[in-house]
Amino acid sequence: MRAAVTEGVEAMALLERPEPSEPGPHEVVVAPEAVGICGSDYHFFTGELSEAAGGSQFPRVQGHEIGARVVAVGPACRGELEVGQRVAVWPLQACGECYPCTVGRPNTCDAFELIGIHVDGGLQERLSVPEDQVYPIRTHDPAVAALAEPVSIAVRAVNRARVERGERVVVLGAGPIGQCICLVALERGARVLVVDLQESRLEWSAGLGAETLVWTGVDEVVATGRRWARPAGPPVVFDATGAPAAVRAMVDMVASAGRAVQVGMSGEEVSLRIGSLTEKELDLLGVSCCGAAEFGQAVAVVERNGGELQRLISHRFALERAPEALRFAMENPTEVMKVVIGD
Ligand SMILES: [Zn+2]
Ligand SMILES: [Zn+2]
Fold this sequence. Notes:
By secondary structure, the protein is α/β, with parallel strands linked by helices. It is built from 12 helices and 18 strands. The strands form 4 sheets. Strands 3, 5, 6, 9, 10, 17 and 18 form a 7-stranded mixed β-sheet that branches.
């Protein structure tokens, strides 16, 4: 079978690899049909994640946003799984024993294995996965099924933030994750203001019913956001950029007793006024990937909003063009919303 293998830093090649053997108990073999590419794929590709992920990660088949069809179901799998079914893949496998695992938060497991990062992922024609990472999904477009993973990050973020009906919520950053947070928060009945540097990226959220604002600078955006949620300021602000200026704006903008939620990933540092945390008594919350129940919630969000989500897919490439697709996505950040690879 064909596999797009990341053989080293910034080196991906299409190779022939042996197919996985027949699935064992509680295992499923799937044929990935569509694989979404995101920022963490760029970080892995450029070698920035290799050390954090525990030493040498190469060679590795990347791809953790996977829409697939079931091609073989192993013994003792749950009855709902059938050959031919379309599925989304939850990329996380946790150890079950460390502190976060024992307090019900396996998504922050110290030893977790993510498909496409720690174990081989979706950029190949067949993939063997534990059955509990396979979620049947009703959508005619496999690329939409692949979006269950980024949507699951948004579900996690909105759950962490405890967003309630009628609340005013600000989302900084209108990339795929920011847009998905907007979607999930709107579904919960919140009023949402989305902020991005690029006006064209705000159209999708505006179409869903969000209000939008073009980023100018920290002070101006903070003032506008606080006016929008007057008099106290927004009770919830998400940063979906990982940019230090946006993180500053989040902490300055959010209401006292509010929730500031960090979703955008970054290795950068940010300086904050310490008094903002104490005076406001903020809940400063970080978001990783999601838990099993939340992945199920994300699948339901995708099934309800497939038509809208499909419009987030800006570019599609066949599997043999995977190296080119990754480069294209990295080199054209303003043009690209979501790149999907699949035949
Ligand atoms: Zn991703
Ligand atoms: Zn663990």
